[in-house]
């Protein structure tokens, strides 16, 4: 175990956990609140015993340095215990979204050559048993454990933990720079890729961010974003043990339940995509919910409509901070708590310490402040590469360390970033580039619209035409003519108006809540949108 006198710049998350378990064994560490099973609570000392026995179970299963453990369990204590135990043994954790089914899971297990796959027996009414039987037949060397079986058989994770001897941690020589996590991208642009992080690339940014966010030992973190998404993994699993604070988890998103847990546990920090913030704002009841301790809510992953920032700030009384990042590098830019509210709805923040941003044109030449181009980033948070995919890694990560993000953006004179869209999401209408983010901001402000996305539809004459894909508020209707009258009143340039409207019951999203525009474009081309065309 690391001691208090050692240099923390080389500490892994497990080092932090073990240090806190030694210093404050009676302090509450983890609250696992599930919508499908009884709540579980652990002190640091209690959970250390669970972690050591989980390490014993993994060791008995033959897991050692460099082996991949695929963890598909939802947010809860088992995910955290498996992560700390795997890292204690020098193994690599591969988080898998609980909603993934055979097609996606097979790809991940085969690509990573995982030695062990841990899944729930049943989650959200889906039984994983048949999928497990198929995977065992196709990958004979794969070991399968279930989070719970109800029968106490040998596949049951809890039984394995209870029956295993404790394995105490010891520092891993050179382990700080070895692979620690393989996280698969969320799929906003196509097939997911395996992003490889070391302990260094995971921890460097978190250390810096805790300083300028003024987070510390007294804080309680609430996380409902899936742990298999980098937001949930970094800020739900890793951040609390760096702070030595409390972690409150929720496995299935439900806004009223989240507000209850946040009130009960006096949560001070949380983070999630725009839909999480929108739901909390809509369901907040000051007569029932007490969010007065909540100081910071970071919303990242998609632009935050100005109207939502204003409503959330006024209703919840919390500082809403915008940020931008990727699975490949965590949060790269962030609005600071000292910044004015307008920075959240006009920018995506400025680079966090040690990370650099620049804007380049199509030829790779750096552009001055105020000009739009592709965003590139460089710094210690950048990932090691895509797992067993050196060609794709070389395409995105240059020899000089600059990572091409695929995002269009602008940097202002103060160094604040504004994401204007994906390179693939650009709409070129007869040579005029439609300002997608600005149009979407106006769509969100329409009283009938709950969610919106502007996408390009191919056109033989103009190259692209713009299509507005929207989800309406309950009881509302909207025709294209109504929308255009509204945009006219907003004095939006006519060439930027959408020429098609698709009213949908839901927009396709990643598990973390990001809108998948590539799927919308495919539907437009195929003429197979699950919607009502106006």
Summary, kept brief:
By secondary structure, this protein is of the alpha/beta class. The protein contains 16 helices and 28 strands.
Mean pLDDT level: 90
What about the largest sheet? 9 strands, mixed
CATH class of the domain at 14-252: Alpha Beta
Q: Provide the spatial order of strands within the biggest beta sheet.
A: 2-1-12-11-13-14-15-16-17
Written description of the protein model:
31% of the residues lie in helices and 25% in strands. The protein is of the alpha/beta class and 534 residues long. Among the domains are: 14-252, ANL, N-terminal domain (Rossmann fold), CATH 3.40.50; 425-533, GMP Synthetase, Chain A, domain 3 (2-Layer Sandwich), CATH 3.30.300.30. Strands 2-1-12-11-13-14-15-16-17 form a nine-stranded mixed β-sheet, with helices on both faces. Strands 4-3-5-8 form a four-stranded parallel β-sheet, with helices on both faces. The N and C termini lie far apart (63 Å). The mean pLDDT is 90.
Write the layout of secondary structure elements.
Blueprint: H1 13-23, E1 28-33, E2 40-43, H2 44-60, E3 68-71, H3 77-88, E4 92-95, H4 102-112, E5 116-119, E6 122-123, E7 126-127, H5 129-138, E8 143-146, H6 157-162, E9 179-184, E10 194-198, H7 199-212, E11 220-223, H8 230-243, E12 246-250, H9 255-264, E13 269-272, H10 274-283, E14 296-300, H11 306-316, E15 319-326, E16 330-334, H12 342-346, E17 350-351, E18 356-360, E19 373-378, E20 385-386, H13 390-396, E21 403-411, E22 417-422, E23 428-429, E24 432-433, H14 436-445, E25 449-459, E26 463-472, H15 480-489, E27 500-504, H16 517-526, E28 531-533
Parallel strand pairs: 1-12, 3-4, 3-5, 5-8, 11-12, 11-13, 13-14, 14-15, 26-27
Antiparallel strand pairs: 1-2, 6-7, 9-10, 10-20, 15-16, 16-17, 18-19, 19-21, 21-22, 23-24, 25-26, 27-28
Helix pairs in contact: 1-2, 1-8, 2-3, 7-8, 9-10, 10-11
């Amino acid at each position: 175990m690391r001691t208090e006198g050692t240099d923390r710049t080389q500490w892994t998350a497990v080092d932090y956990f073990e240090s806190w378990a030694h210093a404050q064994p009676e302090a509450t560490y983890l609250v696992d609140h599930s919508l499908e099973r009884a709540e579980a609570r652990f002190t640091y000392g209690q959970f250390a015993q669970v972690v050591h026995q989980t390490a014993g179970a993994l060791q008995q299963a033959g897991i050692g340095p460099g082996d991949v453990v695929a963890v598909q369990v939802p947010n809860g204590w088992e995910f955290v215990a498996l992560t700390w135990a795997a890292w204690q043994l020098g193994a690599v954790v591969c988080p898998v979204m609980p909603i993934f089914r055979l097609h996606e899971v097979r790809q991940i297990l085969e690509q990573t050559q995982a030695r062990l796959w841990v899944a729930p027996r049943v989650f959200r009414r889906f039984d994983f048993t048949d999928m497990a039987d198929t995977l065992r037949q196709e990958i004979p060397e794969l070991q399968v454990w279930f989070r719970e079986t109800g029968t106490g058989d040998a596949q049951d994770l809890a039984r394995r933990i209870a029956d295993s001897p404790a394995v105490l941690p010891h520092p891993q020589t050179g382990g700080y720079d070895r692979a620690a996590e393989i996280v698969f991208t969320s799929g906003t642009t196509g097939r997911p890729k395996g992003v490889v992080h070391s302990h260094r690339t995971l921890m460097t940014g978190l250390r810096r961010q805790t300083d300028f966010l003024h987070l510390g030992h007294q804080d309680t973190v609430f996380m409902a974003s899936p742990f298999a998404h980098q937001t949930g993994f970094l800020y739900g699993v890793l951040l609390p043990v760096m702070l030595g604070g409390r972690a409150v988890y929720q496995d299935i998103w439900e806004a009223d339940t989240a507000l209850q847990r946040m009130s009960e546990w006096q949560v001070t920090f949380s983070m999630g995509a725009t839909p999480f913030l929108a739901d909390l704002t809509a369901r907040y009841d000051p007569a029932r919910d007490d969010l007065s301790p909540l100081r910071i809510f970071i919303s990242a992953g998609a632009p935050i409509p100005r109207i939502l920032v204003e409503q959330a700030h006024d209703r919840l009384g919390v500082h809403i901070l915008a940020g931008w990042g990727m699975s490949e590098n965590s949060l790269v830019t962030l609005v600071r708590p000292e910044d004015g509210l307008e920075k959240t709805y006009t920018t995506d923040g400025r680079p966090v310490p040690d990370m650099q941003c620049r804007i380049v044109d199509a030829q790779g030449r750096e552009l001055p402040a105020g000009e739009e181009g592709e965003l590139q980033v460089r710094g210690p948070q950048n990932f090691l590469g895509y797992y067993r995919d050196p060609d794709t890694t070389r395409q995105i990560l240059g020899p000089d360390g600059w990572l091409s993000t695929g995002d269009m953006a602008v940097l202002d004179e103060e160094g604040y970033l504004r994401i204007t869209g994906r390179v693939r999401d650009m709409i070129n209408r007869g040579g005029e580039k439609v300002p997608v983010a600005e149009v979407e901001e106006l769509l969100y402000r329409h009283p009938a619209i709950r969610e919106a996305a502007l996408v390009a539809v191919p056109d033989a004459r103009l190259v692209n035409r713009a299509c507005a894909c929207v989800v309406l508020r309950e009881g509302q209707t909207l025709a294209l003519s109504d929308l255009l009258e509204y945009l006219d009143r907003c004095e939006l340039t006519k060439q930027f108006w959408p020429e098609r409207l698709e009213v949908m019951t839901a927009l396709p999203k990643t598990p973390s809540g990001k809108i998948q525009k590539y799927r919308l474009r495919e539907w437009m081309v195929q003429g197979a949108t699950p919607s009502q065309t106006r």
